[in-house]
Design brief:
Helix content: 55-70%
Distance between the termini: 35 Å
Structural class: alpha+beta
Strand content: 15-25%
Number of domains: 3
CATH architecture of the largest domain: Up-down Bundle
Largest sheet: 6 strands, antiparallel
Low-confidence stretches: 1-36
CATH topology of the largest domain: Rhopdopsin 7-helix transmembrane proteins
Mean pLDDT: 81
Number of strands: 19
C-alpha cells in the first residue's frame, strides 16, 4: 500500500481512537453521581428585581425589551461550607456579585474592556464565598447590554471546585473536547498538506480541510463555557469564537470544490466571496465600534446555512445533470452537514438545548467520518491515476529517446550518402584523367596517379565494431566524438546482425546513452587519464554489455540511484538504459570504483 494512502488512514484511525477514548472518559459522569460524593447545588428558582418590581423566576431566563444598562438583580440565599465557590456567567452584561452587602466580584465595568466593544464579552467565573455557618444573602447585579434589548441570566451553581468542574465536564465535556480535537487535527492536517504541496499540487484540498477544522475548532472552543475557566481572557475567546464562526464555510466550500471538481462552480465561488467579504466587513465594523460581532452573527446565521444548502443542492445537480461520480460520493456528507447547520440555527431560536453549537458539532463529526471514507476512495483513485500518468510519461520519454537515437542513425546514413555522392562525382573526373594518361601511353604518370588515389581513399580498418549495422553506426558516431576530445578508446563488441527479441533501435538507445554519459563524464575531468572501455559478450541468448569510463570522482546517489550532474535529479539517461534493459528481460547496474564509473547491462536477444 502507498505511503500517501497509509498516512490519511492512520490519521483517521487516530482521530477516531482519541475521540472514542475522550467520549468514554466523559460518559461516566452524571449530575446524580456527583451529588453522592461532592454536593453541588443548582439555583434555578430565584427572585429577580428590575425596574422597581420583584418577581420569582426560574433560571435560565431572559428579560426582554429592556432599555440599555437596565439593572436586574438576582437574589438567592446560600449556606456556604468550607471551600464553597459560586459559579456565575455574564452574557454581554456588566456584573457585580455581593454577599451580605460585601462586593465579592465585578466584571465588565466601564473601562475594563476595549473601546471598540460596546459590551463586555461573555465570561464565566468561580467566585469564592465567605465561609459561614449561617445562611447569607447573595445578590447578582446585572446591567442589560447596550447592543441588545434582552438580558439572559444562566443558572447559578454553588459547590466545591471539583464538584463544579465535574458538573461542567458532564454537560460541556463533549463540546470542549470536540473543539480541542478539531484544533489539533486542523494543525496536523495543515502540516500534512504543506508536505504534500511540496510535490503534489492537489494537496490544496487538504489545506482547505485543515483550515476548516481550525475555524470550526476556534468557534466551538471560544464559545464553550468550560474554556472560560481555563483561559481567563474573555475578549480573546470572543474573537476566536466569532472569527471561526464567520469564516468556517469559506475553506469548507473551497475543499468541496477541489474534491468535486464542478463543471460550473461560479455560484459556489460567488457565495464564498460573499461570506469572505462579509466576514472582513464584520471585523471592520467591530473594530470601528459600530456593530459588534454578536450582532453581525445574525447575518451569518443566514448566510452560512444558505451557503451549505446551496452547495449541497449544487452537488445534487452536478450528480444528476452530469452524472458526476465525485459529486454523488460527496452528496451525503454535504447533505448531512447542511441539515445539521439548519438545525443549529433553529436551536439558537427554539432552545432545544442550551449547549450552543451542539447540532453543528454533531454534523461536523458525521461530515468528517463520511468524508474520511469518501476521501480515502478519492486518494486511492488519485494515486492510481498518478501511477498511470507516471507510467505513460516514462513510456513517452523512452519513445523520445528511441526516436532521438534513430535520428542520429539516419543522420549518419545521410552523411555517408553525401560522402559517397561526392566520391562518385570525384571518381568521374579521376577516371577521365586515367583515360587521358592511358591514351598518351604514360605508364609512369598513370602509376603515380593511381598510387595517389589509393592513398586518398579512407581506410575502414578498425571502424567495423560489430556485425550489427545500426549499432556499428551509433558506436562509430560516438567514437568519433570521443577521439576528437582526445579520449582513449578500447572497444570490443559482439552484437549479431539480426536479433529477435530486441530491436536495433533499443540496442542503440542502450549503447548510445552509455557512450554519451561516458563522454560527458570524461569531458568534465580537468586532470588525469581520460578513457572509455566498452566490451560485450553474447552467450546463451544473453547479450552482456560492460562499459568502464574515467570521471572526476564526484557522484551523488539518491535512493540508490545516481543524480544527474546537469540537474539535481536522477539521471534520465541511466533511467532509460535500466528501463530498456528490464523491458527486454534483463537489467542494469551502475557503481563507482575510485575514479572509474562502472556500467553493466544485460538483455535477452
Amino acid at each position: 500500500m502507498s505511503k500517501r494512502l497509509i498516512c490519511p488512514i492512520c490519521g483517521i484511525a487516530v482521530f477516531l481512537a482519541v475521540f472514542l477514548a475522550l467520549l468514554t472518559g466523559t460518559a461516566g459522569f452524571s449530575i446524580d453521581d456527583m451529588g453522592k460524593n461532592d454536593p453541588l447545588r443548582t439555583f434555578s428558582n430565584v427572585t429577580a428585581e428590575l425596574q422597581g418590581k420583584t418577581v420569582s423566576t426560574a433560571l435560565p431566563c431572559s428579560f426582554s425589551h429592556l432599555p440599555s444598562r437596565t439593572s436586574v438583580t438576582i437574589a438567592l440565599t446560600v449556606t456556604p461550607g468550607e471551600g464553597q465557590l459560586l459559579y456565575v456567567k455574564s452574557v454581554y452584561a456588566p456584573l457585580k456579585v455581593y454577599a451580605d452587602g460585601e462586593l465579592l466580584f465585578q466584571y465588565g465595568q466601564k473601562g475594563s474592556y476595549p473601546g471598540f466593544m460596546k459590551d463586555p464579552a461573555t465570561a464565566v467565573k468561580l467566585v469564592r464565598l465567605p465561609q459561614s455557618d449561617e445562611p447569607i444573602q447573595v445578590r447578582l447585579e446585572y446591567q442589560s447590554p447596550a447592543t441588545r434589548s434582552t438580558l439572559t441570566v444562566h443558572p447559578v451553581l454553588v459547590g466545591t471546585q471539583t464538584a463544579i468542574y465535574r458538573h461542567l465536564a458532564a454537560t460541556l465535556g463533549f463540546p470542549f473536547l470536540f473543539s480541542a480535537l478539531l484544533l489539533l487535527s486542523g494543525v496536523i492536517i495543515l502540516l500534512i498538506s504543506l508536505f504534500i504541496l511540496s510535490f503534489e499540487r492537489s494537496g490544496t484540498a487538504f489545506l482547505w480541510l485543515g483550515l476548516f477544522a481550525l475555524a470550526t475548532g476556534c468557534w466551538t472552543f471560544g464559545e464553550c463555557n468550560l474554556t472560560g475557566l481555563f483561559i481567563h481572557n474573555p475578549r480573546l475567546l470572543y474573537l476566536l469564537a466569532f472569527t471561526g464562526l464567520f469564516t468556517l464555510t469559506v475553506p469548507l466550500l473551497h475543499f468541496g470544490m477541489d474534491m468535486v471538481n464542478f463543471r460550473c462552480d461560479a455560484p459556489i465561488r460567488a457565495m464564498t466571496a460573499v461570506i469572505g467579504y462579509s466576514a472582513v466587513a464584520a471585523l471592520a465594523l467591530q473594530l470601528a465600534g459600530l456593530v459588534p460581532l454578536s450582532r453581525s452573527m445574525y447575518l451569518f446565521h443566514l448566510l452560512e446555512p444558505l451557503a451549505l444548502v446551496t452547495f449541497a443542492g449544487h452537488v445534487l445537480y452536478e450528480s444528476i445533470r452530469f452524472q458526476s461520480t465525485r459529486a454523488r460520493k460527496f452528496l451525503l456528507p454535504m447533505g448531512v452537514l447542511a441539515v445539521f447547520s439548519v438545525l443549529e440555527v433553529v436551536n439558537y431560536r427554539a432552545h432545544f438545548t442550551y449547549i450552543l453549537s451542539l447540532f453543528f458539532q454533531i454534523g461536523v463529526l458525521l461530515f468528517v467520518l463520511i468524508t474520511s471514507v469518501v476521501g480515502g476512495g478519492f486518494i486511492r483513485d488519485a494515486l492510481k491515476l498518478r501511477s498511470d500518468e507516471q507510467r505513460l510519461k516514462y513510456e513517452i520519454r523512452l519513445m523520445e529517446y528511441r526516436m532521438e537515437e534513430q535520428k542520429k542513425h539516419q543522420q549518419l546514413l545521410l552523411e555517408n550518402q553525401e560522402t559517397v555522392r561526392a566520391q562518385r562525382h570525384d571518381l568521374r573526373h579521376q577516371l577521365a584523367v586515367i583515360r587521358s594518361f592511358s591514351e598518351q601511353d604514360g605508364d609512369r604518370r598513370l602509376t603515380a596517379y593511381l598510387d595517389t588515389l589509393i592513398a586518398e581513399i579512407p581506410s575502414e580498418r578498425g571502424r567495423l565494431y560489430c556485425e550489427n549495422t545500426a549499432v556499428n553506426a551509433i558506436i562509430s558516431h560516438y567514437a568519433a566524438q570521443a577521439e576528437k576530445q582526445g579520449i582513449e578508446l578500447s572497444i570490443q563488441l559482439s552484437v549479431p546482425e539480426h536479433t529477435e527479441q530486441i530491436s536495433d533501435s533499443s540496442l542503440c538507445v542502450i549503447l548510445g546513452n552509455l557512450f554519451e554519459n561516458a563522454i560527458e563524464a570524461c569531458g568534465r575531468m580537468t586532470e588525469g587519464r581520460r578513457f572509455i572501455r566498452l566490451r560485450s559478450r553474447l552467450q546463451y541468448g544473453t547479450l552482456t554489455i560492460a562499459m568502464d569510463n574515467s570521471f572526476n570522482g564526484r557522484a551523488v546517489r539518491k535512493d540508490g540511484k545516481f543524480l544527474s550532474s546537469k540537474r539535481d535529479e536522477i539521471g534520465t539517461g541511466l533511467q532509460s538504459v535500466t528501463a530498456m534493459a528490464e523491458k527486454h528481460g534483463g537489467g542494469a547496474s551502475f557503481e563507482t570504483d575510485g575514479l572509474v564509473f562502472l556500467s553493466s547491462v544485460y538483455v535477452r536477444l
